[in-house]
Fold this protein.
Amino acid sequence: MKKLFLLVLVITLFIACQNQPQRYFENSTEIETVKAGIKAYESQDWDTWKANFADTAKIYVNSNKALSPDERIAVFKEMLSNIESYGFNDKMNEVEMIVDAKGRTWVNYWNHWKGTTKITNTEINIPVHLTLRFIDGKIVEEYAYYDTAPIVAAFTEIEAAKAVEAENEDSMQENQ
């Protein structure tokens, strides 16, 4: 009788474990949306990039202050005006989707962003982590985490190079 009880208990536990909904995914429509968004970002196709977001989406970049997709695009354009070339490393691309205990769908993206600045040709390499929440196939929240110090240092170097160039031009004009 004891063996029968243990057998029923083991079978019940096995069946109960099998009925759990899947919560971790390596392939999904949402993951493909994130990948397409990365490609749109790399090609500066802002209409395609923005189309992945809900109208009320909020984007948090190393901050608890939210930006709209349009505000984020403006920041991208300003930053990229100082960048000669940039992109993510396709070989280091890690993407997963989870459904949390509250039933919310999140996609996590890890990669390295690499860019080369205009004027100074400084190479910037930054690890990036994005976490994006989806509702009905659209991104409603994005959290972007990366170290901005290399970007700030590179842009400070650009400004210093511009100042030296302007100083040299003023000096040449005075000597004429």
